[in-house]
């Protein structure tokens, strides 16, 4: 059902343009009133988010089970726990982030001082995706609140239970004059994009990202695009058996653990030397069997449409023959078995499209810049070469996914995997404008006089 919820939990069949306009007016006026700028308002909202996460933990687990079949440990590890960490990090750094940063001033301006003062951008629009429907909705909100903005969050229609929970509960915990949650799909998204925003923060596909950027261009609205792509992992011929086992555990855990491979930073394919491939594949197979023997340990595909998309990728005859492990699927439960393919045809869709599911490929080629590159190796030269010769949103050595929870690192893509970044202080910056403030006194006019007529005519310039 397409519709909209604006803080009261009522889904309406069709969003009335007039009604939307009224709500936008509401957030604009709230921002204009200046209340979102104060430290105490920002802190109160962050505390409200924490209260929401604590009070509604069980409801969040239930919603994530309903939308994606996530186990509650997975739900805590990938969404609730990550958010609690991020809110606490913002709370303990907020004062520092809000303070102006002194900068050097040329001596010739003396006496003078200068600083960069972070100011909120205004009213921002946030789109979130369905695969981490709580985490990816609230993580950017932390940045937007910390930076003192008013905001509209559009949740994903493909995770309706999570979307409903956020729309119904967030208004009880946050200032509902400054933070609006809107539910709906493409139709609602398109309507929102017709309006003028001070920033659009979008998490989703490259295809819709292009639409967002085109619409934003009309008002010269800056955007952050958190997109996807194919993330490779390079696996060196690890000679130490223990290292091999650790690497494979981390590959298998990182690939199929978070949302059954439906993660933007999930590994899409492995790059491995041919002679090492059989050893690696054997280890992968035994680890997959050990980790996911119980199908409750793995989430399900989000809906029938995405399930069909994955089956179609696999069912191309030339692709099917490259499956060396797994490949089965169950339409009733929407589960797809962890699957490994070796040397599938380069022109097959599975090699050109983002997989976003539990299929892992071994393949070496040139690709668009990925969101993440992983490499498992002890070879420092290889690490240096990967850093120097590739471009990607991030590089992680000897593990997967963990860069997402490192507050000191920016999270975002480059090229086709995205524009801009967030997390920790980077989230604060993404939703702030660094205003240059220069203060000079009326004293000491000598230099100025030299640079103004008529004195400058007496200076010989060469
Ligand atoms: P999507 O692009 O289909 O949808 C994203 C959002 O845009 C949703 O809220 C959706 O309702 C809205 N939308 C859809 N069509 C629209 C339109 N025509 N106009 C305006 N809004 C519209 O993406 P998705 O299916 O939700 O997510 C999957 C994609 O997101 C994958 O490509 C994945 O890699 C990427 N992703 C990236 C990150 C990241 O952090 N970089 C995280 C998760 C997912």
UniProtKB/TrEMBL annotation:
Residues 20-437 form the Aldehyde dehydrogenase domain. GO terms for cellular component: cytoplasm. One of its GO terms (molecular function) is aldehyde dehydrogenase (NAD+) activity. Its EC number is 1.2.1.3. Keywords: NAD, Oxidoreductase. It catalyses: an aldehyde + NAD(+) + H2O = a carboxylate + NADH + 2 H(+). The keyword Oxidoreductase applies. GO terms for biological process: aldehyde metabolic process; response to abscisic acid. It is an enzyme of class 1 (oxidoreductase). Belongs to the aldehyde dehydrogenase family. This is aldehyde dehydrogenase (NAD(+)). It comes from Dioscorea zingiberensis. The chain holds residues 5 to 466 of 564 of the full protein.
